Amino acid sequence: MRCWLLPALACALAQPGAAHAADAPPGASSCSGCHAASKTVETAVPRLVGRKPVEIVMAMREFKSGARPATVMGRIAKGFNDPETDAIAAWFGAQSD
């Protein structure tokens, strides 16, 4: 497991309504450090839960290539290969509140 995932995993488990991390594909729990799982959390960072997987995949690929401006997402996206990104996107798309 990547060492930067541990704080994100702890944060994800502590969030009310967070999708069950044990069922998540590797890397998905790291998203919950910034992307809220609950509808009741107000944040400028968009929620991923219930989002169309194709939207998540496209955004990640744009962040990874530098086509989409980012502060940290460009670096995070580079840490995932296409199959990992696809699995994470599918998992978040299947989640609901």
Assign the structural class, choosing from mainly alpha, mainly beta, alpha/beta, alpha+beta, or little secondary structure: mainly alpha
H/E element order: HHHH
CATH architecture, by name, is Orthogonal Bundle
The biggest beta sheet is recorded as:
none
Gyration radius from CA atoms, angstroms? 12 Å
- Strand share of the residues? under 5%
Count of discrete alpha- or pi-helical segments spanning 4 or more residues: 4
Amount of helix: 40-55%
CATH topology: Cytochrome Bc1 Complex, Chain D, domain 2
Instruction: Indicate the CATH class.
Output: Mainly Alpha
Task: Describe the 3D structure.
The structure is a single chain. The chain has four helices and no strands. The protein is globular and about 30 Å long. The N and C termini lie far apart (27 Å). The model is unreliable at 1-19 (pLDDT under 50). It has helices spanning 5-14, 53-65, 73-77, 82-94. 42% of the residues lie in helices and 0% in strands. The protein is an all-alpha fold. It has a single domain (5-94), classed as Orthogonal Bundle (Cytochrome Bc1 Complex, Chain D, domain 2), CATH 1.10.760.
List keywords for this structure.
97 residues; mainly alpha; Cytochrome Bc1 Complex, Chain D, domain 2; 4 helices; 0% strand; globular; disordered N terminus
Short description:
By secondary structure, the protein is mostly helical. Helix content is 42%, strand content 0%.
What is the strand and helix layout of this fold?
Elements: H1 5-14, H2 53-65, H3 73-77, H4 82-94
